[in-house]
């Protein structure tokens, strides 16, 4: 039963929008970059997320942002936005910073949510080395 549900969900996601269905426009793609990608402890990184391409679809207007930093830290950001009226463009770039104090390889992930539903997700890695002269 569970396998059938997963298959049905995958098929539903694969079906293209019907011609002329303007409500289903082209979805933007979420790109995530971190700077620096390789660093020494302690380091403060800046992460830039950008919705690229696609149409200004209502589901991407004023999303909640869930950052997972890979070190057990999480950040959530929500905005209080005016209702979507269809003519306004919306924010396509998001920024955050995070501090790493321990060496390791961390996976940074951003999930955009709208009405508690994930609408886009992207991740990238950062490698943090121990500072020169640091003792283990």
Oligomeric nature of the chains? single chain
Shape: elongated
Q: What low-confidence regions span 5 or more consecutive residues with pLDDT below 50? A: 1-23
Spell the H/E element sequence. HEEEEEEEE
Going by CATH, the architecture would be: Sandwich
Compute the gyration radius: what is it? 19 Å
Average pLDDT rating? 83
What is the percentage of strand-forming residues? Answer: 35-45%
CATH top-level class? Mainly Beta
End-to-end distance: 51 Å
What's the total count of β strands? 8
The strands making up the biggest β-sheet line up spatially as: 2-8-7-4-5
Question: Which superfamily, in CATH terms, is the homologous superfamily?
Answer: Immunoglobulins
Largest sheet report: 5 strands, mixed
The tally of structural domains comes to 1
The CATH topology is Immunoglobulin-like
Q: Helix count?
A: 1
Structural class: mainly beta
Q: In which range does the helix fraction lie?
A: under 10%
How would you portray this structure in words?
- This protein is mostly beta strands.
- It contains one helix and eight strands, in the order αββββββββ.
- It has one helix at residues 2-14; strands at residues 29-35, 38-40, 43-52, 64-68, 74-77, 93-100, 104-114, 117-129.
- A hairpin with a 5-residue loop joins strand 4 and strand 5 (74-77).
- The longest helix has 13 residues, at 2-14.
């Amino acid at each position: 039963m569970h396998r059938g549900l997963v298959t049905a969900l995958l098929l539903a996601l694969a079906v293209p929008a019907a011609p002329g269905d303007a409500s289903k426009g082209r979805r933007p793609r979420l790109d995530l970059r971190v700077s620096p990608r390789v660093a020494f402890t302690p380091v403060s990184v800046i992460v830039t997320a950008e919705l690229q391409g696609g149409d200004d679809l209502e589901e991407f207007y004023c999303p909640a942002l869930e950052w997972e930093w890979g070190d057990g830290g999480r950040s959530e950001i929500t905005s209080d936005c005016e209702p979507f009226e269809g003519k306004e463009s919306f924010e396509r770039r998001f920024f955050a910073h995070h501090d790493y104090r321990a060496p390791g390889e961390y996976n940074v992930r951003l999930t955009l949510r709208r009405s508690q539903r994930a609408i886009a997700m992207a991740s990238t890695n950062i490698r943090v080395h121990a500072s020169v002269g640091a003792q283990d």
